[in-house]
Design goal:
By secondary structure, the protein is mainly α. The protein is about 50% helix and about 5% strand.
Length: about 210
């Protein structure tokens, strides 16, 4: 609920499971005890850019036992002397104030952490996708061998057809040769019979 001119939290509904609440850039000046009643499990609370002036107003947040990060940046309370030391002393449960801990170490960005986790997941997916799946190369080799076998079998059939046609041609030629021989033999027999008949006729004349 950022920048909605919110001045009071009195009408805040009960949100027992809420962990993070954004209330920045409003005109809230007090009544923070409602947060402990309605949102007791808050871990992160952003009240930056509001009208909170005194430490006594912030003291009500002591009842948020799970609160780890509080943001009051750009609020009037930050103008107080020893502001950071006072807040850490008052709210001993918090680790980060305005994005930094007591030793000025920056708080980790939850969105960046989510992005890093997402990148790692993407990397795992890419690793899973990279390269052929198990058994793929063996299947590919088997397919290549089958293709070769089929090509060989087709070639063998072709050779067989050529051999058959060749044999059939030889048989045809043999049959044609036999017919020629039979015709020659018939011709010879005919000539022989003709000669025998002529000889018989000469003997009768004698």
């Amino acid at each position: 609920m950022t920048n909605v001119e919110l001045s009071s939290l009195a009408q805040l509904p009960s949100l027992n499971k809420l962990l993070k609440l954004e209330l920045s850039d409003n005109i809230i000046s007090g009544g923070l005890e409602v947060l402990a009643e309605k949102c007791p499990n808050l871990i992160y609370l952003n009240l930056s850019g509001n009208k909170i002036k005194d430490l006594s107003i912030v003291e009500a947040l002591q009842n948020l036992k799970n609160l780890k990060s509080l943001d009051l940046f750009n609020g009037e309370i930050t103008n107080l002397e020893d502001y950071r030391e006072s807040i850490f002393e008052l709210l001993q449960q918090i680790t980060y104030l305005d994005g930094f801990d007591q030793e000025e170490n920056e708080a980790p960005d939850s969105e960046e952490e989510d992005d890093e986790d997402g990148d790692e997941d993407d990397g795992d997916e890419e690793g899973d996708e990279a390269g052929p799946p198990e058994g793929y190369e063996e299947e590919e080799k088997d397919d290549e061998e089958e293709d070769k076998d089929e090509a060989g079998s087709e070639l063998g059939e072709g050779e067989e057809e050529v051999g058959l046609s060749y044999l059939m041609k030889e048989e045809i030629q043999d049959e044609e040769g036999k017919e020629d021989e039979e015709e020659e033999e018939e011709g010879l027999w005919g000539e022989k019979r003709k000669r025998d008949a002529e000889d018989d006729g000469e003997e009768e004349d004698d």
